[in-house]
């Protein structure tokens, strides 16, 4: 498996939300983590010194009476309380900052996905994008919680150990202690990260594959049973689970070996500290209590590096997550692409436009010439697959013309599929305008003919919907989508793709009447893709599309317009 190829811009795109979310909190959290480790080392060292000094003082009555037990015991109590408080504060601050950073990352990731053809990509690969939003963002949390914070604490422990050895035993002892801690502590962590990189990446990919297989199994169980593919899909799930298990076992073994290496390095340092302390006592350079303190400090100095083990093992997964989501984060920082404005007095303008869907080599619409005046209503009519929705996507900026040009004013696109979410009615409406108050929401519902239905609900705007808008009828869902469209006040061009498909005649006529009234009041231009007579009847012009080509442009009042209207499907 190729290793992640990263550059500074990708890493910066991921770290920037962390640094900008709560920079002071992040710095304070890392500082508290280091303070916790230092307090623990000092607590252990002073306790060892105090016990040894007390034992020696108690051997003679004179020294026992003169020995001050209050200051060391007070220092021990202070360090114990301070260590507990700093540990609590470190956990509170670092996790709060991480959650804030994760929220910022998810927001930027959503903005990165809000690009042309985003809806089609989301429907084509929902599991993969969901994994980016959950698994990959969670993997990035390790960069701070399991790498940066433990590294700061471990560095503080190494410096404290070096300072103590340097102060009591000499500069060379302090330098040797620092080099050994960095070589064995940080070196083992870096070696573990390098060796775990590929296995960690395999685990991340295996987790994604397992999710995909399980979701396909659950969501498509009816189709799988009808096609006789249920056993094969279960085997796919089992194989994905086996790949994940192999990666987990490999990482577990590596993590175990890393712990053994640190334990061995700690034992070597402890043995060296014992020998050095005994030599220093024999030379008369330090007393027994100080020697006991140095031995215990050497025992505790390597322990903070063990906290890096988890981060080192998961670093490969974090780098893989950076490589996969950084382009989307960078895309979210760029200016959203918009279509150029058409000539004055026009709402949309296409000149010899050739439209091709992403990933397709065939031309969907060719040599499209179209001019839509401001406030005009146009209906695109033609058989299914003729290219109506493709033209709508181009006018919305979802598809870029391969050749020619497409220019249009800012548009709001009401697609065939009504996208509602598992949220309350207010939340679904606020997707159109997050700043809209309840007065505007009720006004939009009233204009869409849904206000009375919502008032009849016990919780009104706070009524919860199920997944996909479960709890509303088809007509209510379409009206809610219409209310959401009416909340968009910055879109002078409305694109309606079969707006009343699937509605009964009475509901459909009411929806169309309200659409026409609102469009006239706001002086909005309408483009309606349809094969229904009732929808095309709103138009001033009929644009007939056949085989991806515009074959006729018919204006209201002409015999050709009326004839084409009669050929459309009746209500």
Map the helices and strands.
Blueprint: H1 8-21, H2 23-57, H3 61-66, H4 70-113, H5 118-124, H6 126-169, H7 171-219, H8 221-227, H9 230-283, H10 288-301, H11 308-333, E1 346-355, E2 365-373, E3 377-381, H12 388-396, E4 401-408, E5 411-414, H13 425-430, H14 438-447, H15 451-456, H16 474-486, E6 493-497, H17 505-522, E7 525-530, H18 533-536, E8 541-546, E9 549-555, H19 559-567
Parallel strand pairs: 3-7, 3-8, 5-6, 6-7
Antiparallel strand pairs: 1-2, 1-4, 8-9
Describe the overall structure:
By secondary structure, the protein is α/β, with parallel strands linked by helices. It has 2 domains: 8-333, ABC transporter transmembrane region fold (Up-down Bundle), CATH 1.20.1560; 388-567, Rossmann fold (3-Layer(aba) Sandwich). Helices cover 66% and strands 11% of the residues. It is built from 19 helices and 9 strands. The strands form 2 sheets. The protein has a 6-stranded mixed β-sheet, sandwiched between helices. α1 crosses α11 (308-333), α4 (70-113) packs parallel to α11 and α9 (230-283) runs antiparallel to α10 (288-301). It is elongated. The two termini are 58 Å apart. The mean pLDDT is 83.
